[in-house]
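Illustration 12: N-acetylmuramic acid 6-phosphate etherase.
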Amino acid sequence: MLDLSKMSTEQINERTQDLDILPIREALEIMNEEDQKVAIAVKKEIPQIEKAVKAVIETFNNSGRLIYVGAGTSGRLGVLDAVECPPTFGTPPEMVQGLIAGGEEAFVKAIEGAEDSMELGADDLKNIGLNSKDIVVGIAASGRTPYVKGALNYAKEIGCKTVAIACNKNSEIGAIADIAIEVVVGPEVLAGSTRLKAGTAQKLVLNMISTISMVGLGKAYKNLMVDVQLNNIKLQSRAENIVVVATGVDRKIARETLEKAGGSVKLAITMILLNCDREEAEKKLAEANGHIRKIIT
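Figure caption equivalent — predicted structure in C-alpha cell form:
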C-alpha cells in the first residue's frame, strides 16, 4: 500500500485545522500568507533552476525540443506553459511540448489511473519521436508519479537531458533526473490539495525556465517581447507599442515599418535602429543569431 504520510505535501497544516469553521476573511488571509511562502521556497532552488535553463538553451541551440511531462495539475501546468510559447515567442508548436497522462482529454477531465503507468510515460515520449537532442522535464508535486518516472527513465535511456520538478526533498523523480528542482512549500491549506501551493510553485518554476530560456535565444530586446505573433487586434497593438518603446518613433512609423517587416517586431525594430531595409535587417539578425542587442552594441 502506498504511504504518502511522510511527504511534506501531504502533511496537515496546523494553521488550518479549523478551516471548515473559520470566518471567510480569516481563511482567505491564511491562504494568502501561505502563498507568500511559495516564492521564498522557489528562491532557494534558483541554482538548480539556473542549471535547467542553461540545459534548455543548449538543447534549443542544438535543434532539440523541450518536453514537459506530468499528470493531473502538474501535467496541465506543463501543457499550459508549452502552448503559450508560440504566441509569446514565435516558436514552432513542436519546439516546446507538454504531455499529460491520459492525453489531451485529461486536460479538462481527470483520467483516473493514467498517472499510475510507467509504461504510458515512456510510450507517450516514443509517440512524439523523442531523440537524444531533446530535454525532458518531469513535473510531479509528490515527486513519485509513475507516469513521470517512466518518462524520465526512458528519456535517460536514449540519452536525453532530464530535469525533475517536485515539491518534496529527495524525490524519486529527482533521483532519476540529471537536474532536480525540489521546491518544498510545506503542508497545503487544504491537506493534500497540491493544486494550491505546490501548483503555484511549479507554475513559477516553469515561468522561469521557459521565459529565461527564450530570452537566451534572443527572443527579447531589453525586456520586450520581440518575437510576439500578431494573431489578434490586441497583439497587433502590443507589437506597435513594443516598436515605439524600443525605438522612440511615433506610432505611425512603427505601424508602417511593421508592415514593411511582414509583421515581424524584431525586424521592424532592427530596421529602425539601423536605418536599413528589411533585407539588410534580416542579414544582420542572422549574423547575430537573432539577438538585437548584439547588432547595436
